[in-house]
Amino acid sequence: MRINPSILSADFANMTAELAKVEAADMIHVDVMDSHFVPNITFGLPVVQNWRKVSKTGFDVHLMISDPDTWAPRYAENSEMVTFHIESASDPQRIIHKIKDLGKKVGIAVKPNTPLEPYKDLVHQLDQVLVMTVEPGFGGQKFMHEVLPKIRYARELIDQENPNCFLQVDGGINLDTISLASEAGADTFVAGSAVFGADSPEQAIHQLRAAANR
Ligand code: DX5
Ligand code: ZN
Fold it and tell me: Residue 85: is it exposed, middle or buried by C-beta count within 10 angstroms (0-12/13-18/19+)?
């Protein structure tokens, strides 16, 4: 069970200290938004490059942008794993190959209303499938229970096609909802407000991991 804190809920004015608080994490989840694919904007490549210099933990980049075909490889050069939204990708196969050629991990993400079934043939090549449990764009939203059947379907698909592939969930994950997602088959959990909003982010990571394992 992997816990990846989302940087979106961190204090952007103190990132060296914020990153040091979450060294117990498996990876740092880096939410890139462009105000086109989602109605919010966060940060771009130069910012990610600078944060990486002060992070001891690897970066799991979540691209919520309208042109992943152009940008995904650039982020792959500056992280360990890049997950792009299938809804905005023109040529997913090409993106996957480009990221793999760089020796990095690659994933696809689906919004709550996007079915996974049409993309099942991609799963054998992926390192991660990200099932969004909120509408992407903002931290601190409520976990959408109606996505649980899709998590179960993703688990079956991954078990059949590619058991090493991570099944990540993102949005509204806290000590209550993490067990629902893990029972449904998720093994990698993004948590923004539940980690950075806690008195001790480190303790929150350990508690979330324990709850996911239960
Ligand atoms: C939402 C982002 C999430 C977000 C999660 O679009 O993809 O990673 O930061 O935040 P919480 O855990 O607060 O829902
Ligand atoms: Zn995210």
Answer: buried
Closest CA relative to residue 178, chosen from 9, 169, 166: 169
pLDDT in tens, 178-187: 999 999 999 9
Residue in 18, 62, 169, 170 to alter for ligand 1 test, most ligand atoms within 8 A of Cβ: 170
Q: What is the pLDDT of residues 60-87, one digit of tens each?
A: 999 999 999 999 999 999 999 999 999 9
The H-assigned helical ranges of 91-176 are: 92-101, 148-161
* Residue 137 backbone zone (phi > 0: left; psi -120 to 50: alpha; other: beta): left
Separation of 93 CA from ligand 1 center, angstroms? 26
pTM: 0.98
**Residues 38/136, Cβ–Cβ less than 8 Å:** yes
Q: To which residue do tokens 């650039």 refer?
A: 74
Neighbours of 117 (CB within 10 A): 9
Task: Please name which of 160, 143, 159, 151 lies closest in space to residue 184, comparing C-alpha atoms.
Answer: 151
Q: Which residues are catalytic?
A: 31, 170
Which segments of 35-176 does DSSP mark as H helices, in order? Answer: 45-53, 68-76, 92-101, 148-161
